[in-house]
Amino acid sequence: MDKNLQFKDLWAVILGGSSGFGYAAVERLALHGMNIAVIYRENKSSDKALKESLAKIEAANTGKILPFNINALDADARASFINNFAAFAGKKSVKVLLHSIARGNLKPLTIKNNVEDGEYNTLSIEDIQLTTYAMSNSLLDWTRSLLKADLFNTDGRIIGLTSEGAHKYWDSYAAVSIAKASLESLAKYMAVEFSTYGLKTNVIQAGVTETASLKMIPGSEKLLEIGVKRNPLGRLTKPEDVAGVIYLLCTDESFWINGSIIHVDGGEHCL
After folding, report:
1. Domain span including residue 208
2. Where do transmembrane segments lie in this chain (predicted)?
């Protein structure tokens, strides 16, 4: 099979495709003929630059790439996307839904030294709820919306992204940690309950990766430094490492992988 046409007439819907793992997945899936709807939220100048980059990827490959600068967490925006997208994609054409939204609150749980400090904002319940919806529960809404519109392929794949921070302490990462732990649990239930539609749901746990999202975490420099020393293969994980596994999870050979947390970290999690 010509790998440039491997996914001809099939679509990927990528939530959070403007940078990091999502953008790397666009590049990789496009190489194999996948048509891609890229959903992201950027300002006017960033939007223009991203659309130019996506147009170059499209021109170099055989599939279509459709950019949608919308709020993926807004129900009306999601409904509007489904209506517009269905005209391009057609029924049962979505091979993969990738959830790569990185939107959350990075705050500590407690005030500094028990002294009120306006600059030391603490995590609120609302912060936790917003972060959990953005980085976990929104995957369920998008899955249901695509299913209701009969857009999922009968051998569709759903992929989420988690991190080691779901299982260990990282400074000011509590809200994201809660969201990632929630995503892992949600994916387990989705793997069972959505299997009736032929969907396979898996989560990728990437190693420490130098992305814009990671750099927002307090003490990220230390995470990067330790990540290199700790990794058995002596380097950080790259977005393209993860994109390669996202591609593999879309292939026929991955048909029987469902409900798994897949470590893509060069063995980092072993140490």
Report:
1. 3-264
2. none
3-class SS at 266?
A: coil
Q: Is 270 domain-assigned? A: no
Does residue 135 form part of some domain?
yes
What are the helix (H) ranges across the chain? 20-31, 44-59, 75-89, 125-132, 138-148, 174-193, 212-215, 220-230, 239-250
User: What are 189-248's pLDDT values in tens digits?
Assistant: 999 999 999 999 999 999 888 777 777 777 667 777 777 888 899 899 899 999 999 999
200-206: strand order across its sheet: 65-69, 35-40, 11-15, 94-99, 152-162, 200-206, 261-264
pTM across the whole model: 0.93
- Show the tokens assigned to 124: 């609120």
Long-range contacts of 68-76, Cβ-Cβ distance < 8 Å, separation of 24 or more:
68/37, 68/38, 68/39, 68/40, 69/40, 69/41, 69/42, 70/39, 70/41, 71/41, 72/15, 72/16, 72/39, 72/40, 72/41, 72/101, 72/138, 72/142, 73/101, 73/103, 73/133, 73/134, 73/138, 75/141
Alpha carbon distances (Å) from 23 to 5, 18, 147, 234, 259: 20, 5, 24, 24, 24
* Residues in CB range of 83: below 8 A, 6 or more apart: none
Tokens of 138: 């929104």
Do residues 58 and 64 touch, judged by C-beta distance below 8 A? yes
Cα–Cα distances in angstroms (integers) from residue 113 to residues 60, 62, 108, in the given order? 56, 58, 12
Question: Within a domain: residue 121?
Answer: yes
Q: Give the residue from 53, 61, 64 showing the smallest Cα distance to 23.
A: 53
Residue 269 in any domain: the answer is no
CATH number, residue 207 = 3.40.50.720
